[in-house]
Amino acid sequence: MKTFGDTRIDLQLDEQRRRETIIHNEKVNKNRDILKRLIHCVIFLGKQELPFRGHDESRESANRGNYLELLTFIAEYDPDLHYHLSTSKVFIGTSSQIQNDLISAVAEVMGETIKEEISKAPFVALMLDETTDVSNAAQLSFVLRFVTDSGVKERFVKCEDVTGKKRAEDVAAMALGFLEEHGCMGKLVAQCYDGAAVMASGLNGVQAKVKEKIPQALFIHCYAHALNLVLSQGVVKIKECRIFFSHLSGVAAFFSRSPKRTQLLDEICQKRLPRVAPTRWNFASRLVCTVFEKKDALKDLFDYIVEHHEEFDDAAILSADGYLSNLGNFEFGFFLSTFNEIFAHADVLFDILQNKSFDMQFCLTRVEEFCICIEGQRDRFDQIYDETVQDTGLPTGRRAHGDSRSHYKKLHNSILENILNQVQNQFKDHEKLSFLSLLDPQQFTSFNSNFPETAFASLTESYGPHFDLSRLKTELSVMYAADWQTEVMFAEGLKVRMGEENNVGVAGPAQSEQTQGGRARRETMKGSM
């Protein structure tokens, strides 16, 4: 694959060798062009998340797999590739080993490119998400978000099997090792987790252990994570809640497995239940709300399946009888009412956190109001308990012995305390982000007359060592005093705010690095929220 190099006297004297060199170099260039096509096919399939191999890759097969079929399709319009696939005897590029080698080569180049991008970024944020793959193994994904001159970048780097590593110590060790490998130990400014099973086993421990090594790595709620998912994964530490959510997800799965059951659901309930995705990204609130709203209709549906048993298979009858029993069970009804009220408030908060137009202080105020609202749910216990008794009757079984009201009151309080702890831990570091208001153009006029010392102190406390604070304060004062009614100045101000322009009035060239650092930090932190 290597071309021959500089002009040599002996080659000029030997015409035959010169021609051989030309032919060799032409062949090398053609081979490189063919290899480019193979690599582009690998990149295309990877980008589209399509499998490479086929069940039957023989020439007689109608479908030889995406990789071979894609090459064949391209070859119909590419004479060079068609000639190569038809005549090559040494390297065709279609074997499974070659496919794996090309995938590994592309992955290696991408990894090195990402590392190079990260090495140039002044600040990064780490996101860890856990999900279950098709082989039922727990996979932890590592994502880095950072800022370059071209804008905000978010790179998925790798997945790692954590099936046997579910302790907080294990996850924290993997996170720190990953950061050290990519040279991010001194650059990390934010960390966020999804709250799923692996992370929930020691979420506070994970972020705390990372903070022990990197104190400036604030624990931030990621806007991509549904708040109700985080809360529901937290309360499943309570045994009774875990059982409740298991039954609830089973109800949704029951209908997703059969078109006949789904049709019956449409006819009787006139509303479908949200699907429970295997990755657990979408769960909790919509399902709780739908089951609560359609509880009586679901009872009629399951009763219909049991009564018309001749129309359904044994598995459907067995499941329907169990779910019918659950819907008439006091404990299930009690939890359904409890979480329906909690998640209704959490949905409102989640929508606010998803809206990028709200400033940090507004969001923190809404979080405080949510906590107050959850505290107020303690006074709702008697009403929830009495309404559930009217609907299902008193608790039966072991709960019927002793004071069942006291037992469920303790359980109700435990749920509320767990929710409060989850929210407080999730947002405790957000108070340190009040400095983001320094770059809110809607407040520039008021900041001009009264400099935001509190917000500036927040920046100093959280990330002071990364800034030339006296120079930054001067720049902010100049920006606040600018004539924002002038269109040109307004445009320049926006450029400064977005980090596209690093020269603000009195600032000299030496100030550009600090300003760029402020842009990078702000963009990284915004992306992590």
Automatic annotation (TrEMBL):
- What highest taxon heads this organism's lineage? Eukaryota
| TM region(s), chain numbering | none
Stretch list, region Disordered: 505-529
Q: Where is the composition biased (Basic and acidic residues)?
A: 520-529
What are the DUF4371 domain coordinates in residue numbering? 30-205
Q: Which PANTHER family match?
A: PTHR45749, ZINC FINGER MYM-TYPE PROTEIN 1-LIKE-RELATED (PTHR45749:SF28)
The name this protein goes by in its record? DUF4371 domain-containing protein
Record organism: Pogonophryne albipinna
